[in-house]
């Protein structure tokens, strides 16, 4: 019998470690049951997260050089647009799905050239001040041409509703992989005395604030583990060394077995000043970790109800961050209570629920 599955393709820079890449992996592994799934990447890179072998990855180029000027950026993106459009045609793709601003713009234009529908997914804080003007202009011009803009929270939807006139906008939260979910262990108070944080080492994540809070609490029998990599790695290592914390604070490169750390830590700490929706906080809470997070614009407040299933503190209130981290460390009765409520909070994010909504949205646009 002839296979009549429709062909869909995600478009993203690369399948490297990261929140958007994790989401595409989770969705692809679920949607492969209903569609032929391709992932079009700008550059060639081994996928960081485990992908179903039926998912097809097609890179546009082996490598790309970063442009040195606005003209160079235009040339590069025109080159990418032509390549994505050609791959879309060659593979008879029926619908494109962009992830993150640059891929969203290119996916939308490639879809128009091939006369097929396009969904785009914005993952960042829409009010972030460090998005290049070039992309802000393109976003405003091109996003309305997409068939649907997918955002992660109602708050983000409200911001975009006032700035970008899209045909349709829907809220679809990040899914938690059922494969990851199966690996979680019950939380117990005899876990190791570890405070865990996971995330890219950059100015938004502000791991230095967690290090400072850990130092202020003078915890003799606790360890702080920071999982990730990024531009601030050497800066963080210098902070740890200068404060004589090398025996207590460890930076660990991004790992594929993050569940091992979720399963052995006692507490999760998160100090971001900007988020689209924090996958790692969602995962940590799903593993039952009592969590402390800054109340940055998007995400944490949709997961944590302060004092009920974790602690939320204002972004720049370092004193309160230290105080609440101390409460999590010393008030052991909070551990079990927060752990159970955290797990309950995250059940609705299991990928079977979220993917069902994605599937309905995709089918609706394929049939339009």
Compile the SSE list and pairings:
Elements: E1 7-12, H1 19-31, E2 36-43, E3 56-61, H2 70-90, E4 95-99, H3 101-114, E5 118-121, H4 133-142, E6 148-151, H5 154-163, E7 169-171, H6 178-181, E8 194-198, H7 207-217, E9 223-227, H8 233-242, E10 249-252, H9 258-264, E11 267-270, H10 279-286, E12 291-294, H11 300-303, E13 311-313, H12 318-330, H13 332-346, H14 351-367
Parallel strand pairs: 1-2, 1-4, 2-3, 4-5, 5-6, 6-7, 8-9, 8-11, 9-10, 11-12, 12-13
Helix pairs in contact: 1-14, 2-3, 3-4, 7-12, 10-13
Low-pLDDT parts are none
Percent of residues in helices? 40-55%
**Portion in beta strands:** 15-25%
Q: Which radius of gyration do the C-alpha atoms yield? A: 21 Å
Return the structural class: alpha/beta
Whole-Å distance between the termini?
A: 26 Å
Shape-level CATH architecture of the largest domain: 3-Layer(aba) Sandwich
In words, what does this structure look like?
This protein starts with 6 loop residues before the first strand and ends with a helix. By secondary structure, it is an alpha/beta fold. Helix content is 43%, strand content 17%. Helix 10 crosses helix 13. Strand 11, helix 10 and strand 12 form a beta-alpha-beta unit. The model has no long low-confidence stretch (mean pLDDT 91). It is globular and about 60 Å long. The protein folds into two domains: 187 residues, 3-Layer(aba) Sandwich (Rossmann fold), CATH 3.40.50.2000; 170 residues, 3-Layer(aba) Sandwich (Rossmann fold), CATH 3.40.50. The strands form two sheets. The protein has a seven-stranded parallel beta sheet, sandwiched between helices.
